[in-house]
C-alpha cells in the first residue's frame, strides 16, 4: 500500500465518520451553527453531514477522487468559521473544553492540505 493510497483511504474514512456523526448524533454540533444562518441549526447539521458523506464517497471512488478531494478541501475551509465560533463561544468554559475548542483551529489547515494532496495524487 502506497502512502497516497493510505492517505486517500484515511481521508475518505475521516469524512465518512464525521458525516455519520452529524447524522447519528447531531446535538453536539448545534452550538456550532451561527444564529444568523436561515433555518434551523439541525438542518445545517444534516446538510453538512450529507456533504461530508458525499465527499467521502467521491474520494473513495477513483473516477471522482480528484473532484471529491477538492470538494473536501472546500468544505473544510467553509466550516472553519464554525470552529472559530465554537472557540469564541467556549472561551469561558472549563479548561479541557476550551482546549478542545481552541485545539481544533490549527488542524484545519493541515486537513485542507491533506485533501489537496489527495487531489494532486488523483490526477
Write a structural description.
It is a single chain. With about 120 residues, the chain is mainly alpha-helical. It has one domain (about 5-115). The protein has 6 helices and no strands. It has helices at about 5-25, 40-60, 65-80, 80-90, 95-105, 110-120. Helix 3 (about 65-80) packs antiparallel against helix 6 (about 110-120) and helix 4 (about 80-90) packs antiparallel against helix 5 (about 95-105). The protein is globular, with a radius of gyration of 15 Å. The two termini are about 20 Å apart. The mean pLDDT is about 90. It comes from Actinomadura montaniterrae. This is DoxX family membrane protein.
Q: Helices, strands, pairings?
A:
Blueprint: H1 3-24, H2 41-60, H3 65-78, H4 80-89, H5 95-104, H6 108-122
Helix pairs in contact: 1-2, 1-6, 2-3, 3-6, 4-5
The main β sheet shows up as: none
Overall morphology: globular
Low-pLDDT stretches are none
- What's the end-to-end separation, in Å? 18 Å
Helix content: over 70%
Regarding quaternary structure, what we see is single chain
Instruction: Give the helix tally.
Output: 6
Mean pLDDT: 92
Radius of gyration: 15 Å
Look at the helices and sheets and give the structural class. mainly alpha
Structure summary, number of beta strands: 0
Strand content: under 5%
Domains (count): 1
The helix/strand order is HHHHHH
For the structure shown, list the relevant keywords.
123 residues, mainly alpha, 6 helices, DoxX family membrane protein
Amino acid at each position: 500500500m502506497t502512502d497516497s493510497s493510505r492517505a486517500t483511504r484515511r481521508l475518505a474514512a475521516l469524512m465518512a465518520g464525521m458525516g455519520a456523526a452529524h447524522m447519528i448524533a447531531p446535538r453536539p454540533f448545534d452550538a456550532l451553527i451561527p444564529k444568523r444562518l436561515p433555518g434551523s441549526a439541525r438542518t445545517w447539521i444534516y446538510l453538512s453531514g450529507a456533504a461530508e458523506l458525499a465527499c467521502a464517497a467521491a474520494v473513495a471512488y477513483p473516477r471522482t477522487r480528484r473532484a471529491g478531494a477538492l470538494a473536501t478541501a472546500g468544505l473544510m475551509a467553509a466550516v472553519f468559521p464554525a470552529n472559530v465560533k465554537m472557540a469564541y463561544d467556549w472561551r469561558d468554559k472549563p479548561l479541557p473544553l476550551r482546549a478542545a475548542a481552541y485545539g481544533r483551529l490549527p488542524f484545519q489547515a493541515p486537513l485542507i492540505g491533506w485533501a489537496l494532496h489527495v487531489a494532486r495524487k488523483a490526477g
